[in-house]
Amino acid sequence: MLDKKVAELLNAQINKELYSAYIYLEMADYYSDEGLGGFENWFYIQTQEERDHAMLFRAYLLNNGEKVTLDTIEKPGKSYDNFRAPLETALEHERYVTSLINAIYDAAYSVKDFRTMQFLDWFVKEQCEEEKNTDDLIKRFDLFGSDAKGLYMLDSELGARVYSAPSLTL
Ligand code: FEO
To answer: 4-70+80-159: what fold?
Structure first.
């Protein structure tokens, strides 16, 4: 059995990760509408990764004898009026997710739940990568995105991104 607060936060994170998947799916749809299939691909892979994250939290709870309670997923409902806007929202969102992971870690640390801390270590590292990848994308967009040829090249590069399942298995 896990500490009640730790279990509640882990359960809530399933919802947050699925919401993240939803946000990224909306961004993929936006870029698809705009004819930028590479950006669409990049964000669709983000969606797949967020779904994976949700399933990892689910599996961890079940493996520890906890019940999973699924809640309503918030509607993303954002609209974007330029190609850079989803990138900014994505970075802001990843920073928010980092704060959530840190809060769970903090709760686990306060009750000496070493098992959960070890489980979360992967997510701490993952959040560092997620923030960096999104920040790098913004930088490259700022360098090349304002020129049609540069945008085409960047879109082609993003189109080559391939999904790979998370390295963490439970
Ligand atoms: Fe599941 Fe992008 O954090």
So the answer is: Ferritin (1.20.1260)
